[in-house]
Write a structure and sequence with these properties.
The complex is a heterodimer of chains A (114) and B (231). With 114 residues, chain A is mainly alpha-helical. Chain A has helices spanning 12-40, 45-53, 55-83, 87-113. Chain A is elongated and about 60 Å long. In chain A, 5% of the residues are buried. Chain B has 231 residues and is of the alpha+beta class. In chain B, β3 (61-64) and β4 (67-70) form a beta hairpin. Chain B has two domains: 2-99, Ubiquitin-like (UB roll) (Roll), CATH 3.10.20; 102-230, Alpha-helical ferredoxin (Fumarate Reductase Iron-sulfur Protein, Chain B, domain 2), CATH 1.10.1060.10. Classes of the chains: A mainly alpha (114), B alpha+beta (231). The A-B interface holds A 5, 7-13, 15-17, 78, 81-82 and B 157-158, 160-161, 188-197, 223, 226-227, 230.
């Protein structure tokens, strides 16, 4: 392969925007969740389970998990781009992260709806 | 006044070292460059770039007590001793305080820092309203001293792929210019995970710019225009 500096993968803006939007989603969810903990003051598992039984809460929580995983993917990929220079190793790590995050999304879905 | 200066001559030295100097200042010596020139009079093997000695040419950028700046407009008063002078970080050292600016200028050239037009030229000149011209304030004043880019960790990490604050400031200078007709191509060229988006708003560039410019704000405006174009 010719040794050239290759740039121009057109996903700079998309990922930058996604990182901000997912941060807002996570921030909003965290704030509401904290507020609920302070106000409702749940003490036992029963109260937590009752809350997570509500459909809007389940959807919001799943949205939070999706946002978290997408956000984490972009952040980790950025770190790999900075620190892991061999392309093969970088790609392997990226695939590993994608599979792990996908597993976490599926696991969360199972917890919420299973 | 005491100084500790980075010395490295690749033809002679195995590795860089710091050399101590003590120099008697004259009442007329007010800026750091004056003191460095006195040192150079003592030891003419010391290598540095300088020219206009008034903060316009941008050739005497160096790392002064850990902070990038221009020696000619850095007052001696207020510098803690020994004054530690090193070459601008992140660029290859040619000798002593002289760095190879090749990579820096390569990034600058890549943003096409000139007006690009497709419409036929008018008879006299391309006019701009005073309001449109105002948009270029804070952009055109850059002297390309490289103090900002060499203070940027993203540039240290990816100097070959990330443009760096100086080149991005110039990129915006032409995106913002109402006479330029290549805005779309310019934005397309920057929509890459490295070229523009390696900026993580660390703002070292703003902190060190000897001309008081704000590359971070310009980068933010480019991002804003990209979002506006997309949505």
């Amino acid at each position: 392969m010719v040794k050239r500096i290759v740039v121009g993968a057109h996903y700079g803006l998309r990922d930058w925007l996604v990182q901000r939007i997912t941060a807002v989603i996570m921030g909003g969810y965290t704030l509401v969740a904290l507020l609920w903990v302070v106000l409702a003051h749940p003490v036992d598992r029963h109260e937590w389970a009752a809350l997570l039984h509500e459909r809007p809460v389940r959807i919001a929580t799943f949205l939070f998990v999706l946002a978290l995983c997408w956000h984490a993917w972009i952040g980790l990929r950025d770190i790999f781009m900075d620190y892991i220079q061999p392309v093969g190793l970088r790609l392997t790590l990226q695939v590993g992260v994608i599979l792990t995050l996908l597993a976490e999304v599926l696991w969360s879905a199972e917890i919420l709806w299973g | 006044m005491k100084f500790s200066i980075y010395r490295y001559n690749p033809e002679k030295d195995e590795r860089p070292y710091m050399q101590d100097y003590e120099v008697a200042l004259q009442p007329t010596d007010r800026m750091l460059l004056d003191a460095i020139l006195r040192i150079k009079a003592q030891d003419d093997s010391l290598g540095l770039r300088k020219s206009c000695r008034e903060g316009v040419c941008g050739s005497d950028g160096m790392n002064i007590n850990g902070r990038n700046g221009l020696a000619c407009i850095t007052p001696l008063q207020g510098l803690t001793e020994p004054v530690v002078l090193r070459p601008l970080p992140g660029l290859p050292v040619i000798r002593d305080l002289i760095v190879d600016m090749g990579q820096f200028f390569k990034q600058y050239h890549s943003v096409k820092p000139y007006l690009e037009t497709t419409s036929p030229p008018p008879r006299k000149e391309r006019l701009q309203s005073p309001e449109d011209r105002e948009e270029l304030d804070g952009l055109y004043e850059c002297i390309l001293c490289a103090c900002c880019s060499t203070a940027c960790p993203s540039f240290w990490w990816n100097p070959d792929k990330f443009l760096g604050p100086a080149a991005l400031l110039q990129a915006y200078r032409f995106i913002a210019d109402t006479r330029d007709e290549a805005t779309r191509e310019r934005l397309d060229d920057l929509d890459d995970p490295y070229r523009l988006f390696r900026c993580h708003t660390i703002m070292n560039c703003v902190e060190v710019c000897p001309k008081g410019l704000n590359p971070t704000a310009a980068i933010g405006k480019i991002k804003g225009m990209m979002v506006k174009r997309m949505v």
